[in-house]
Amino acid sequence: MRVATIDIGTNTTLLLVTDCSDGRVRVLCERAEITRLGRGIGADGGLGQQGIERTLAALGDYAAIAAQHGASIHAIGTEALRRAPNARDFLDSAERILGVGVEVIDGQREAALTFLAAVHSFPQETQGTAVVIDIGGGSTEIIVARNGHMQFRGSLPLGSVRLTERRVHSDPATSAEVAAVVAEVDALLTKVPFPAEPATLIGTAGTVTTLAAMALHLQSYDPARVHGYCLRRPELERQIDRLRTSTRFDRDSMAGLDPKRADVILAGACILDRIAVAANADEILVSDRGIRWGLLIERVAAATGQAPALS
């Protein structure tokens, strides 16, 4: 059984192609393109033509890769497609390219898929109390779990692109702009019932994996090194200090930081830091396996009656 899962996010469009014929997941191809479908989401605008064209081009490449591997395609869309008034035009074009419709999922389902990927990636760490987060371009999903079961799941209108467009207009960001980002994050985090007891904080998606790659000084992204890395709070704070005082030109040459993410990474890092503070966590366990992995597990389990084993 060969499956291709596609995650069309506000900032990034991702592909995972796997072979699960023997009950285990063998990765055949992974791709991630920063397509900025949701540029302008902070202003509640529609999808911009450039973002649409970039994302459709990436989907064309992904459809060709899936066909080469003989994989069935399953695609989901998140916050940008939930909000945009012109989402249908994009979705119709995407369906023609992929040969299947794109399922636009709500925040609750997005959180559930994030948690499914985390449970199968870190079965021991999620058996106690865990907080799992997915920081995207337009929204952040937060799950509080105990003994492998979700106790709370929610989606907050916090994202690296969204907050940058709303709050950051200088290069480098001013102290007032950073304070405005932090204040907005803190206000929304009051809605989350973070556990009083010690919890494992697991973070996924591009902001978290990028900060791990920066901490590791990776010249090229290596999922094997990023997945399972423990990003400690002092290191996260050091990266935030670097980002606060750097210009876009400086950030373009930072090891581990994709230049296409350089303009929004500071806001994403602030979200991560404030969540760590709220969760009273000293470190973040980094996952390279986001909702495309959760979707893979879900679809394989539905087809075979058993979830595939992840290595």
Strand % is 15-25%
CATH architecture grouping of the largest domain = 2-Layer Sandwich
Helix content: 40-55%
Whole-Å distance between the termini?
17 Å
Report the count of strand segments: 11
Briefly note the CATH topology name of the largest domain. Nucleotidyltransferase, domain 5
The whole-number mean of residue pLDDT values reads 94
Count of separate DSSP helical elements: 12
Determine the CATH superfamily of the largest domain: Exopolyphosphatase. Domain 2
Which structural class fits the helix and strand makeup?
A: alpha/beta
Sheet with most strands: strand arrangement: 8-7-6-9-11-10
Overall form: globular
Number of domains: 2
Low confidence ranges: none
CATH class descriptor of the largest domain: Alpha Beta
Instruction: Give helix and strand order, one letter per element, not per position.
Output: EEEHEHHEHEEEHHEHHEHHHEH
**Biggest sheet statistics:** 6 strands, mixed
